[in-house]
Description:
Layout: E1 2-5, H1 9-13, H2 16-28, E2 32-34, H3 44-48, H4 52-65, E3 71-74, H5 77-89, H6 96-105, E4 107-109, H7 110-117, E5 126-134, H8 137-142, H9 147-153, E6 157-161, H10 177-180, H11 182-198, E7 203-206, H12 209-221, E8 227-230, H13 231-235
Parallel strand pairs: 1-2, 1-3, 3-4, 5-6, 5-7, 7-8
Helix pairs in contact: 5-6, 7-9, 11-12
Amino acid sequence: MKVALFATCLIDMFNSNVGKDTVELLENLGCEVSFPESQVCCGQPSYNSGYVKESKEAMKKMIKAFEDAEYVVCPSGSCAYMFHEYPHLFTGDPVWEPKAKSLADKTYELTQFIVDVLKVEDVGAKLEAKATFHTSCHMTRLLGVKEAPMKLLKNVKGLQYTELPGKHNCCGFGGTFSVKMSSISEQMVDEKVQNVEETDSEILIGADCGCLMNIGGRIDRKGKPIRVMHIAEVLNSRE
C-alpha cells in the first residue's frame, strides 16, 4: 500500500523524530511511504486567524503536492482535519472543489489509518511505563477520531494506562489562541498539567504536536518529572 506522508510544520521544524517514527511504523506495517517535497503549511494558522483568501494559496499548493497520492497519512489530527475542511472552502469552484474533495477522501490521521484502513490494532509495541493520553480538540470533535488511539495503546505491552481526568477539556493551545489569549491559555494548560499529575503518570501521550508542545512546555517550566511523547513514538517503541 502506497502512502504519502503529510508531515506538518511542527513535526518538520521541531519534532522530526515523530516523523521518523511515523515512517518506520508505517513501513513495518507493510506500507511504501513517500514524502512529497513540495508540501508546505496546510494553511490552518492563517485560516483560523481569518485570512481565508490568503490561506487558499497554501491550500492549492498542498492539493497539488498530494494529487497523485493513493493515501495521505498525517501524524496530527488537527492538520489532517484541515484537509477535510478544504472542500467547504472551495465550494462552487469548478476546478478546485473536486480536487479538494479527492484529497479529503484519501486523508487519514495516523491511528485512524492504522486501525480503519490497515485493520491493525496491535503493532507490536512495548513500553514499560505508566501513561495517560490527551485527546486533542480537532482530532476528536471535528475529525471524529476517538477510539483508534485507545485500541492501539491498549495493546502496547507493559504500558499501564490511566484515563486523564477532564480529558475532553482543551489544553489551551488552539494555535494562535495561545498567543492572542495567553493569560486564558495559561490557566487552561495549568489545569491540564494538574490533571496529568493526578494520574501519577510518567508519560503524557498525545497525537497532536501542537498540544504536546504546549503542555510539555508548561510541564517543563513547572519542573514536573513527566515525559511527553507523541503516539507515533509510543507505537514505534520496543523498550
